Amino acid sequence: RTMSDEEYYDEEEVEEEEEEGEEEEEEYEEEEKTNPDERKSARSAMSEGDGNFLKARQEAKKGELDEQLREYINEWRKQRSKEEEELKRLKEKQSKRKEIRAEQEKALAQQKKEEEERIRHVESEKKAKEAEEKRKRLEEAEKKRQMMMQAQKDKQNAGGGGASAGGGGKRTDGGMGNVGDARREMTKTKEQLEEEKKISLSIRIKPLELDGMYEVELKTKAGELWETIVRLETEKYDLQERQKRQDYDLKELKERQKQQLRQKAMKKGLDPEALTGKYPPKIRMYSKYERRTDTRTYEDRKKLYEGGWEILYCEFLEKDWKLKFEDFSQHAKAKLPKWFGERPGKKAGEPDSPEDEDEGVVEVAPAQEEEPDEEEEEEEEEEEEEEEEEEE
């Protein structure tokens, strides 16, 4: 909490009065010690004078404090007025700066707008110039086309054979002479083609000037328009027929290509339709347990699906049985020992065999066909899995 000036000076006055009172008491005590009788008599006189003196002194100090406070208040008012003037000056400066900035922004916006207008004007002029050049170029191309068609028509009329000459004209028009022009036409965007179409139509379709024409002139004009319609319809029909012929040729070429690819796939042992698809054929592995390609031809694999697998499996079992039988027949023949004095295999009621017969070599009867061991079972399982994969 801050202390005001009046409170501060009041506290100083109280401290000074307390110090003065302490000094007077000390002097009074010393005088009482030295002259107690005189002091008693003088005490009454001094008490009245001290009271008046203290009052006057307090009034003087109060007047000084009031004067200091007035000075402080006046100084504070002057300082406050200076601060207000400075604040007012800064506000005026800020308002002027805002006005200057607004003018500068306005000037910049105007300059930017003028620059955009200039750029737009330059671009429009450039586009108009390009359109004019394109129109001139298309006009020249149209003139050349008209001249060529006129020369072709004159040639047909001069040849006399309308059908044969027409067929020759179709053959000359059928091939694309300039491949570069065709590629450029294919790479054009839809907007460019639309623009060229509009320009070409504006060149070909000329405005009709019918003002001031009489009946005879209107009839001749109508005849010219009819001839133009007939000529354009003829050209349209020729182009449609040419497109149909080209589509048929493309279809025939694709079919020939498919036939060649089928023959190629058959030679490689693949499915006939393996090379005719969009993607190349998958590499067929002989087995999922062996990392080697299947070199069997398509005919061989086809026979397996048609029942050849059972024949192969039977041949494999027959061969395996023969090998096992040969191994078994090559085993050594051994004597059968007596079991607790009895011949093995003796039936009840049979006589005992002589010693010679017991000691004789008893041939071991050939065992029946043994069941395939675990390896054969695994091979069979692998073959069945291969069959399933091929069927899929």
Distance between the termini: 97 Å
- Rg (C-alpha, Å): 65 Å
The outline comes out as flat
Mean pLDDT over all positions: 76
Biggest sheet features: 2 strands, antiparallel
Q: How many individual helices?
A: 9
Q: Give the quaternary arrangement of the chains.
A: single chain
**Spatial order of the strands forming the largest sheet:** 1-2
Order of helices and strands: HHHHHHEEHHH
Helical coverage, percent range = over 70%
Strand content: under 5%
Instruction: Find the count of extended strands (DSSP E, 2+ residues).
Output: 2
The class by helix and strand makeup works out as: mainly alpha
Protein traits:
9 helices, 392 residues, mainly alpha, 76% helix, two-stranded antiparallel sheet
Give a description of the structure:
The chain has 392 residues and is mainly alpha-helical. 76% of the residues lie in helices and 2% in strands. It is built from 9 helices and 2 strands, in the order H-H-H-H-H-H-E-E-H-H-H. The protein has a two-stranded antiparallel sheet with strand order 1-2. Helix 1 runs antiparallel to helix 2. The protein starts with a helix and ends with a helix.
Write the SSE topology.
Blueprint: H1 5-34, H2 36-159, H3 162-174, H4 179-187, H5 190-204, H6 215-267, E1 285-287, E2 290-293, H7 298-329, H8 355-359, H9 374-391
Antiparallel strand pairs: 1-2
Helix pairs in contact: 1-2, 2-3, 2-5
